[in-house]
Amino acid sequence: MHRQFFLDVDNKRLAIKNCFAKRLATVQKKFTRTNDNRTKNPVVAIQQAVSHTTHLHEPVIVDEHIYKEKIRAETALNSISDAVICTDINGNVDYLNIAAENITGWRREDAFGRASNEIFNIINSNTRLPVINPIDCVLQTQKARGLPPNTLLIKRDGTEVEIEDSISPIHNWEGQYSGVVIVFHDVSATKAMASKMAHLAQHDCLTNLPNRMLLNDRIAQAITLANRHHKQLGVLYLDLDNFKHINDSLGHLVGDKLLQSVAKCLKECVRDSDTVSRQGGDEFVILLAETKNSEDAALTAQKILDALHAVHHIGKTELHVTTSIGVSVYPADGLDAETLLKNADTAMYYAKEKGRNNYQFFIAEMNTRAIERLIIESNLKLALEKQQFILYYQPKVNLSTGLMTGAEALLRWQHDEWGEVVPDIFVPVAEDSGLIVPIGRWVLRQACLQAKLWQDAGLQDIAIAINISAQEFLQKDFVAGVRTILKDTGLDAQFLELEITESVLMRDAECSRTILMQLKKMGIKLAVDDFGTGYSSLSYLQRFPIDVLKIDQSFVQNIESAKDDGIIVSAIISMGNSLKLKVVAEGVETASQLAFLKARHCEEGQGYFFSHPLTAEQFAKMLLTNMPALDLVN
Q1: Homologous superfamily in CATH for domain 4-191
Q2: pLDDT digit string (tens) for 357-414?
Q3: Top-level CATH class of 203-363?
Q4: Would you say 550 and 586 are in contact if contact means Cβ atoms under 8 Å apart?
């Protein structure tokens, strides 16, 4: 049974109800988008009930069911996240739902009767200029339309929110035009997320620098501008020298922070109009837009080399880093982004071959060398599998007795088609590609196994010296790997001597000292190879548990003709003797060099004057005789 009740309203109240009911029909239609029969639509039922009232000042009798449906409809409008604003035919606001109140900052009672332009104040987010209010357009044309792109709503408190959606005309029960309804929602978060995703798609997440995709686009734009203004542009391809060793020894967290420090340094070396990009890993590319000539690129490259030489403070760690830079110039070295990047990359590898920490301009001949390098690298990957590597052994001789005291294992590559490939050709490629690590493990195992075989055959017990590359030395499992190889081969640790270059030790002195101490505790002998080329301080040298100093052959070869080299060799020998270290001179080739070394009490020598590198079988014959390599006593 239906219960009736009376709602006393004045003219304004009833007008508002009437307007709301009519607006509500249009809003309901927007969200339901159905063609239900009007008599079954609760909102329409409200309209019918209200429209039957003939006298505004008379009480309005509304069926309870219809009233409940009205309340339900309004509750639904207040529950949706979209804002709804209705106006009358003059464009004055006569309804806001709760979402509209929240987004605009206007309360319904405060907004009622005000001009829609005041409540719905919008501007363009890009130009910051007022937008022709689409409400006025709908009022004039009586046709629905969407909000303009990039619409900002100025809220009551002056803050801004980006919105979008549409505005539609409202027609009453009789089909007469009676106002407009604005439906919109806040898209600020969505736009911010889209903007963030677009940024991430074009930038490196670690350094926030442009990535390869954005760089290619900027190079293309720079080429267009260079053509228009008759200028050049430069591309600098950078690769940090030996960065992998820092990652391996200090961890990726330190490595990441170093990359961020390098990125900041690079940005400070260029103009705002230039682009610093990270290509991945430890590779960076710099676009120098609209340069006058190649000298501009050279000046920037040198500026970068100088800037990176400064100390990078990563937590409590002080790190030094250098870089190799390849430079290509438009239009001489390429007419598109891909060619310019490829040629700059090629020049960068040439800079590495030149000793790192320098820059090189691209020249056409580099392409030939780059192709050769790729061929060597691809063949190196198969060399271990095909057992193409072989070890030679060069004797070390006591300069006083002439007796052989040990040998250095030297790697050779016997290619099936190319024949013997000298280390100077393939070792740099192996180091750059990371293949030096598995190759070095093979050398260590093979040399230890051969030394043990000689001992088991009853030959003279000698120490085998093996040169360790920087990448091998700084591997986290290097010490464990050495221990495993000694155990597997059965060679006593006292017969193994590991040679590490001075520059590798000084790259991270504390880390090097820790590794050396672990090796020393195992009973392994430790040598500093190529001593004199790294210019390390004596204080650091004393901290390392070193047994042997090997004088670099470049000093030994020139002691007869270069007075300064003779002084250096003499100083190294004197220092080594004072520190009770064995001193070994590399590259001894003449009798006069031998006499110079003996006169200064150098303990051992190695070089062609005593013997060329020998195969394992040839070396075994020399061990079998156990005779002096030369009559050196006299």
Answers
A1: PAS domain (3.30.450.20)
A2: 999 999 877 777 778 888 999 999 899 889 999 999 999 999 988 889 999 999 999 9
A3: alpha beta
A4: yes
